[in-house]
Amino acid sequence: MKREWLFSLIPLTIGVGFLCFGVYGLRHAGTLRRTGITAEARIVRHDVGRQDDGATYYHPVAAWTAQDGRTCEHSSRFGRGTVGNGFGVGTHVVVQYDPQAPHRFAIEGWDVKWVDQLFTVLGAIFTLGTVTILLVRLLAF
Fold first, then answer.
1. Is the pLDDT of residue 124 over 90?
2. Which residues pair with 42 in a beta bridge?
3. What is the band of 74 on the pLDDT scale with cuts at 50, 70, 90?
4. pLDDT at position 12 over 60
5. For the chain, what is the HEC assignment?
């Protein structure tokens, strides 16, 4: 394999990574839609994450009582640069959670489906585009 073919691994790796992240999120949302239980929750704090470039992301931590009486407190998988008025500490929110695994949950209005859809579409474009180019190059030589 010639050296220029190795550069094809970059968009292919990015595409597969995006695709996996997006499909995981869409499956997660689908499971919650089919079997999820809705509960009233309260934002108890924000987990703060900092990126290498200095950006700060806030992940709200929701606490609720599950249907079986367990107390649940979990951080959202989505972080944002700012916390809106509706998601400050002490705010009451609605969560939808998986009764078998309450750590799989979504905060209504915070967790957005379009992010997973965007990653899935971008991942598919990068992956299919790179594979198509590689196949064309293989068949041409």
1. yes
2. 63, 92
3. very high
4. yes
5. CCHHHHCCHHHHHHHHHHHHHHHHHHHHHHHHHHHCEEEEEEEEEEEEEECCCCCEEEEEEEEEECCCCCEEEEECCCCECCCCHHHCCCCEEEEEEECCEEEEEEECCCCCHHHHHHHHHHHHHHHHHHHHHHHHHHHHC
**β pairing state of 56-65 and 71-75:** antiparallel
Instruction: Name which of 57, 110, 56 is nearest 79 in CA terms.
Output: 57
- What is d(CA 140, CA 81) in angstroms, rounded to the nearest whole number? 47
Q: Higher pLDDT residue, 5 or 132? A: 132
User: pTM for this one?
Assistant: 0.71
Query: How far is the CA of 76 from the CAs of 6, 110, 131, 138, in angstroms?
Result: 37, 9, 34, 44
Token output for 115: 């992010």
